[in-house]
């Protein structure tokens, strides 16, 4: 699986963490390996192995100066490509500089993020130019939160529409007057209405239907799925369409940015939210954009961005004024059930019982395992077909009973898994129904 996960570009750090030429380097962990990112004197970014190629000192302590980074142990210095520029204790000959290189990797600065490729040399796919990358740089907002749990637990949360109107009901995610309902439970302590939107609330859903039909289609970039909910008192449907740029990036229904989950190691990951100004919940993570009007900086109190779950409000839960025990945005709600800082840093899925609403969760698992098989057979893993990412779309809208949701995202080029629309028996939704509890 690690070989598959190395075959994609993904963001390893925020550009705001390397704000100016020759600023201090940063240590970056990706897929259990350790690297150093630095911005050289000309402003170019390098992404190199953390340990010095002489005798393994950490270059996170290095000096960034005059076109390279210099190890503080014996002064070896390399440029962003890993070429050795100086080896002060190397005996005065060029021999070592001609035959030794510091490990370096392709890196791109785009859309507020530093993207890297750590797969085998020469195999990097075309760099994905996402829609938000055309936003003026000073308007891009990027935030990162470090979670202590396996990345897939977090990623599956972005592919799970049916929890929106249930766990996130505390955030007023359903924009209807009157008390919200979760099954038979009515929560009548707070007047939900489309005129009262709690801070951090998602764009509201106009229906209380919490049993969406989830339809999944494969695309050149991975897959997309639609969650279809009935509107009250009509045959219209409210549809939320999300696009999964397999395996790390998800563009969710009402957002024009993306949620990106990056594995740091087996038991930790970064959730990165990125988008244009005002489109990303700023409270999500650290935002360090040095703009003229001074975008605020958010820091978690301990260990920078590492997230810890605040206390759950059991009194409000018992009093039926809260469902999940947090009404302060989605973050604590999502993190609590994804295993962040909990006892399930790696969730073993043997005992679960999927339902039809979990079809998109099943899809990413299928693509991951199928990608392993494909790579072992000498084929490319999923999600690497040619695609113009500038056309990538997510969407949410009320549509008529006979309208096709696919028409809202026509440029995504979806197709039913298995290759044609008659192959429903192989589809994730069909497979999920087969294992329904
Ligand atoms: S260990 Fe880096 S120069 Fe010697
Ligand atoms: Fe959520």
Describe the structure in your own words.
- There is one protein chain.
- The protein has 437 residues and is of the alpha+beta class.
- The chain folds into two domains: 2-125, Rieske Iron-sulfur Protein (3-layer Sandwich), CATH 2.102.10.10; 139-434.
- 13% of the residues lie in helices and 24% in strands.
- Strand 17 (249-251) and strand 18 form a beta hairpin.
- It starts with a helix and ends with a helix.
List the helices and strands and how they pair.
Blueprint: H1 2-5, E1 10-14, E2 26-30, E3 33-39, E4 45-49, E5 63-65, E6 68-70, E7 77-78, E8 84-86, H2 95-99, E9 107-110, E10 113-116, E11 140-147, H3 151-157, H4 164-167, E12 181-182, E13 185-186, E14 213-219, E15 222-230, E16 237-245, E17 249-251, E18 258-265, E19 268-276, H5 314-318, H6 331-338, H7 359-376, E20 395-399, H8 428-434
Antiparallel strand pairs: 1-10, 2-3, 3-4, 5-6, 6-7, 7-8, 9-10, 11-19, 12-13, 14-15, 15-16, 16-17, 16-20, 17-18, 18-19
Bound molecules: FE2/S2 (inorganic) cluster and fe (ii) ion (FE2).
